[in-house]
């Protein structure tokens, strides 16, 4: 019997199943729940989780790079400003 991951809380067999719960269903039992988007095949959910983790890591790297670029630009601007001052005397 294929395993599915609950994506939205459901009641099955008199029990409430929360997000992330694993559920064994026949294809016939699973079809209406799949159509509603409240369950996903376990292998499909694992792939979605991996993709989300990879996207989160890429987003974090982009934020860190933007912060580093901003700091470098500020340093360059400060250095340019300090060398561009004329001496008065």
Write the layout of secondary structure elements.
Blueprint: E1 3-6, E2 10-12, E3 15-17, E4 22-24, H1 27-36, E5 39-41, H2 42-83
Antiparallel strand pairs: 1-4, 1-5, 2-3
Describe the model.
With 89 residues, the protein is an alpha+beta fold. The chain has a domain at 3-43. Helices cover 58% and strands 18% of the residues. The protein is built from two helices and five strands, in the order ββββαβα. Strands 4-1-5 form a three-stranded antiparallel β-sheet. Strand 2 (10-12) and strand 3 (15-17) form a beta hairpin. The mean pLDDT is 87.
Give a short synopsis of this structure.
The protein has a domain at 3-43.
| Unreliable spans | none
Shape: rod-shaped
The whole-number mean of residue pLDDT values reads 87
Q: Please give the number of β-strands.
A: 5
Radius of gyration: 27 Å
Secondary-structure element pattern, one letter each: EEEEHEH
- If helices are DSSP runs of H or I spanning 4 or more residues, what is the number of helices? 2
Query: Biggest sheet, open or closed, and with what strands and sense?
Result: 3 strands, antiparallel
Beta-strand percentage range: 15-25%
Instruction: Give the distance, in angstroms, between the N- and C-terminal Cα atoms.
Output: 89 Å
Structural class: alpha+beta
Helix content: 55-70%
Strand order of the largest sheet: 4-1-5
Assembly level:
single chain
